[in-house]
Amino acid sequence: DSGVTQTPKHLITATGQRVTLRCSPRSGDLSVYWYQQSLDQGLQFLIQYYNGEERAKGNILERFSAQQFPDLHSELNLSSLELGDSALYFCASSAQGDYNEQFFGPGTRLTVL
Amino acid sequence: AQSVTQPDIHITVSEGASLELRCNYSYGATPYLFWYVQSPGQGLQLLLKYFSGDTLVQGIKGFEAEFKRSQSSFNLRKPSVHWSDAAEYFCAVGGNNNDMRFGAGTRLTVKP
């Protein structure tokens, strides 16, 4: 158990819908990272937040957004969902902001029908 | 931007045999290099990382990796594989922009 929690574990929704994925980092960790893992794209870095501020941006679509709240939990919002958004979404956390060891959560499996 | 290539999609080794998983990266400066392992249905776990200094890095579970700048490689090795090592292994590279890029992964099967 990494100490990072993600909810929900599974999510099934329809195209065009909007969903919110939630991540609670390890106690004391200030950084949260979001990743998408799919069969065709592999594991892709989406975005990083550090202590409430956006720190780095990867291949995140404009339909996706994220935020980190004062209690350091983070949410990833996915809107106007398409079939291709079906994937495993991981959250990771680290103590600092720069390439310290990242601890990964178990992931949220999103299925878009 | 940085990129990573893992040439082997799937590798099968016998239990007790040695293992080497290949990783090549592309980055203009000194990279930050990582190896992660993912067991089925699990998140990723960091095996080891290289930032600077000694080019031979020791990790958890008996793994090691060697950074070779001349070959742009960071291969993962283990002298004797255990059945519990069966998993997916990811090499990753980070640059100064905090954007970490992962390779496509190598799936390891361990034969009894």
What does this structure look like?
The complex is a heterodimer of chains A (113) and B (112). The mean pLDDT of chain A is 93. Chain A has no helices and 11 strands. Chain A starts with a strand and ends with a strand. Helices cover 0% and strands 53% of the residues of chain A. In chain A, the strands form 2 sheets. In chain A, strands 2, 4, 5, 6, 9, 10 and 11 form a 7-stranded mixed sheet that branches. In chain A, strands 1-3-8-7 form a 4-stranded antiparallel sheet, with no helix packed on it. In chain A, 38% of the residues are buried. With 113 residues, chain A is mainly beta. By secondary structure, chain B is mainly β. Chain B contains no helices and 12 strands. In chain B, strands 2, 5, 6, 10, 11 and 12 form a 6-stranded mixed sheet that branches. A 4-stranded antiparallel sheet of chain B has the order 3-9-8-7, with no helix packed on it. In chain B, strand 8 and strand 9 form a beta hairpin. The interface between A and B is medium-sized, with 24 and 20 residues.
Write the layout of secondary structure elements.
The complex is a heterodimer of chains A (113) and B (112).
Chain A: E1 5-7, E2 10-13, E3 19-24, E4 31-38, E5 42-50, E6 53-57, E7 64-68, E8 74-78, E9 87-94, E10 103-104, E11 108-112
Chain B: E1 3-5, E2 10-14, E3 19-21, E4 24-26, E5 32-38, E6 44-50, E7 56-58, E8 64-68, E9 73-78, E10 87-94, E11 100-102, E12 106-111
Parallel strand pairs in B: 2-12
Antiparallel strand pairs in B: 1-4, 3-9, 5-6, 5-10, 7-8, 8-9, 10-11, 10-12
